[in-house]
Model the fold of this input.
Amino acid sequence: MTTQQLTEDHTSIQTYVQELRHQVDGIEVLEPGTGTTRYSHDAATAKTAAASGNPGPAVVLPLSATEVQTAVRLAAELGLTVVPRGAGTGLSGGATAQQDQVVISTEKLTNVIEVSPLDEVAVVEPGVINADLNNHLESFGLFYAPDPASFDISSIGGNIATNAGGLRCAKYGVTRESILSLDVVLPDGSLITVGHRSIKGVTGLDLTSLFVGSEGILGIVTRATVRLRPIPVARKTVSAFFNSTAEGTDGLAAITLSPVRPAAIEFFDTPSLANIDAHSGTSLRERGAALILIEIDGYGIGDQAADLATALSAVGGRVTVESDDDAVRLWELRRSGRGLPQDKWYIGEDIAVPKSQLPKVYAAFPALEARFGVDISALSHAGDGNLHPLITKDKTPDDGANPPASLLEAATELVKVALSLGGTVTGEHGVGTIKREWAALELSERSREVQHAIKAAIDPQQTLNPGKAI
Done:
């Protein structure tokens, strides 16, 4: 970018900031600079952004849908592009922003507007943190089912933008299954409501599902009507350890063929258990070389546990119904126990396959490791076939500042394995900027044309989150 372009962009941003403050008395706007650097990246791109040393973008922190409308409308009028942002916990680069862009953050839109026990819905603003919503709902005897691993720091709006999944998807589905209606500010600043408060509703095209998972390229959610469920009368955690990763994947099939439908089924392969032990000071590997961690809920909890124990023991599992305290610890290890190797190159993935194909994905790891000189491990939301592989490679003095090409080549080949098994390049993290080339491996040219046509119809000026998702 030339000096003249930088000057012009700075002038445009300054005009935007001044005019927005004039139009909306008291609106909070942060001018671009080092103080807004944290708004230039999400969790996936934080390291790269820090290394660049670039100043951050202008940031708008609206307190109402009307303020979001004004901020978007003014950006469109001035020809500026807007990056919608939730809590910034995304893992695909979907919230990255440049100095010449405007970030509209929903972090201060944190009201739980309504809870209706009889309708089993809540109406919330997008900045509400997932865990905070469930804390609020507890006194009503209700809960919001989607629970990404970042549930205690990620916002409902960000969860909607990426169609976030989580651990309990095995029984309750991903975010889309819990969203009934949305208020959305479009790229021209207009506000529309899509969907229905009622459980059923088929009037018009299903625009709600279109906006869920659209990663901020079509609109900014300012209010959501979410579906709630009764807190189960009981919850219990069952663990099953096995002598190898392969035997553990046999256990996954046994669960599917049993009469039990757990809320969560999480699978740990051998290197993942070793990683957690090294990072968290635990001793899981002493109990086995693979682990299936299961949450069951509802009535008949004892019968469910007994049926699972029978099914898993038949394929070599060592089954334990965990105490409440041990269960809390195990689930915390699942969410945050795995460490990232600071002394190695690494890439994390988010592939998904039909759950019957999980054994084939794990079985493919050794050949890829030998071919590319890497190590591969994977935790998985096994109940719905979503794996989170971690691919690592030792650093050498000849590497320089960038990872060797073989690391990305190994990651790409693993993506191709998932696609060959009927899977996808991203199960829940989204495409963002990081996975666009992989998405092109999955989507046909015509499919991509259709998606770009939808984007152009809603956002002809490419105002919202350009260069992301599609």
Remarks:
- DSSP finds 15 helices and 18 strands in the chain.
- Residues 3-107 form a domain with the Uridine Diphospho-n-acetylenolpyruvylglucosamine Reductase; domain 2 fold (CATH 3.30.43.10).
- The longest helix spans residues 3-23.
- The chain has a mean pLDDT of 95.
